[in-house]
Amino acid sequence: MSKLPTVPISKLKPNVLPVRRNQADLQAAAPTPKSHTVEYEKREGVIPSGIPGLDELIGGGFEPASTTLVMGEAGCGKTTFAAQFLYHGATKLNEPGVLLSFEEPSSSIVKHMAKYGFDFAALEEQNLFASINYKPHEVKKLVDEGGGLIWDTISSLGAKRLAIDSLTSYAMLFESLYQAREAELLLFELLRKWDCTTLLTAEGLQTERMRITTGMEYLTDGVILLHHPRYQAARYRAIEILKMRGTKHSEKMCPFEFVDTGGIKVYPGETVFFDIKDKQE
């Protein structure tokens, strides 16, 4: 069997540079993105994500009462993604939302999200938002009671959106792998009963050589991967739709960035795939 030719690392170059697009001088130096003429399916009756550029990749939005898993390494933007989903629903569509946190205190999340202009405190006063924290010793009570406090909160607000941060932390609060898996399955049963459009975050790594997942991607309706790889001396960000039931979704990686007023912004017309340059370059 013949071996495939080895391509030097120096010949691999991303055709979207890891720079801030608001800097005109750097943008002028960046290569022109390749045009993409593929039009993805646009569905009626879907739930807008609130992430600019994302809905173009997933057929217009999420299916009502669906569950979507957002996976990525630490620092890739999972919590911001979930918070932006809730904030958009409350402020633009008058859809109350609930944040359930098993890791970082929800008060801390709300505080940090203020830098993007997300005023969750004001939404809480308007009964459009509520946050719940579960400590390790309280998680078994959550499962045994069928999510009593969460369901009470969802019912009282009339919540349409739910964000859980994070599924990985939730699983780690149980003594054995068997208990963790059983609790995850029970949680998904509860999610179906609560009838909210739900985002769940989880730690995960997706590369060509190695894949680390929670195993829950088989139970969710959608899986979105947030990449934060390094190229030479800098890192750049990319989003990938791994799975989205009910629609013909995009299958390419697109760049995204954080903007000061608004949070995450996706660029669906650009690509971050690496091009193999000619050896004579």
List the helices and strands and how they pair.
Blueprint: E1 12-14, H1 24-29, E2 67-72, H2 78-92, E3 97-101, H3 106-113, H4 120-125, E4 129-133, H5 139-144, H6 148-157, E5 161-165, H7 167-172, H8 177-194, E6 197-203, E7 205-206, E8 211-212, E9 222-227, E10 230-231, E11 234-235, E12 238-244, E13 254-259, E14 263-266, E15 274-276
Q: How would you describe the overall organization of this protein?
A:
- The protein has 8 helices and 15 strands.
- The protein has 281 residues and is of the alpha/beta class.
- The protein has a 9-stranded mixed beta sheet, sandwiched between helices. It has a two-stranded antiparallel ribbon with strand order 1-15.
- The longest helix has 18 residues, at 177-194.
- It starts with 11 loop residues before the first strand and ends in a 5-residue tail after the last strand.
- Residues 1-38, 206-213 and 275-281 have low confidence and may be disordered.
Percentage of residues in helical conformation: 25-40%
Structural class: alpha/beta
Radius of gyration (CA) equals: 20 Å
Order of helices and strands: EHEHEHHEHHEHHEEEEEEEEEE
Q: Return residue spans where pLDDT drops below 50 for at least 5 consecutive residues.
A: 1-38, 206-213, 275-281
Number of domains: 1
How many beta strands in the DSSP annotation? 15
**Strand order in space, largest sheet:** 4-3-5-6-2-9-12-13-14
CATH class: Alpha Beta
